[in-house]
Amino acid sequence: MSLDILRLDGTPIVSGQMNNLFPDVAVGGGTLVTWFVIHNSSTGNMTGVRVFLGIDAAGVTTRMTVADGTPRAGGWAPAPTPGSWSIPTESAPLTAVTADAALPAGQRVLIAIQRDATTGAQAWPETNHIIVTATGPA
After folding, report:
1. Rounded Cα distance, 134 and 115, in Å
2. Are 89 and 55 spatial neighbours (Cβ–Cβ below 8 Å)?
3. Are 93 and 33 in contact (CB under 8 A)?
4. Closest Cα partner for 35 from 99, 78, 88, 92?
5. Residue 120: which region, alpha, beta or left (left: phi > 0; alpha: psi -120 to 50)?
6. Cis ω on the peptide bond leading into residue 78 (within 30° of 0)?
7. How far is C-alpha 74 from the geometric centre of its chain's CA atoms?
8. Quick one: pLDDT at residue 105?
9. How many CB atoms within 10 Å of residue 109?
10. What pLDDT is attached to residue 121?
11. Which residues contact 110 (CB under 8 A, 6 or more apart)?
12. pLDDT mean by block of 10 residues, the chain; 138 residues
């Protein structure tokens, strides 16, 4: 699979790596939204692009939304307003591409993740992370 997960500045995010989205936080730390793109770096279409959160049940609230599920070459400035938030899990992942269409080679979709540390339990280390899956060429 040739999907890259990148922050808007181009910094890679490693799928499944602990704390790949946010550093540890103490309760009362406020709400933070981070953006990333899923980029198809293969030579063909990727289908079934899905994203799910590994949630630290003892941690603070973390939610995700597809900010722009239309495949594009890039160029989200400013980033769109996030829509409805959900907590996608392995059993109920977030579909990252509009209407489950293909993500063409060289194209990206935009995802937003919100962490709300105003309430919840403190967890050290906090183990929230994302995992991205798809079907397509290597």
Report:
1. 25
2. yes
3. no
4. 78
5. left
6. yes
7. 16
8. 92
9. 23
10. 63
11. 35, 36, 37, 66, 67, 68, 69, 72, 76, 79, 80
12. 83 78 72 86 89 71 81 73 73 73 89 79 62 76
Number of residues in the chain: 138
Angstrom distances, CA of residue 80 to CA of 30, 76, 89, 97, 125: 21, 7, 24, 16, 31
Both tokens assigned to 24: 């540890």
Place of tokens 């602990």: 18
Residue by residue, DSSP assigns 15-82 as TT-TTSS-----TT--EEEEEEEEEE-SSS-BEEEEEEEE--TTS-EEEEEEEEEEEESS--SSPPPP
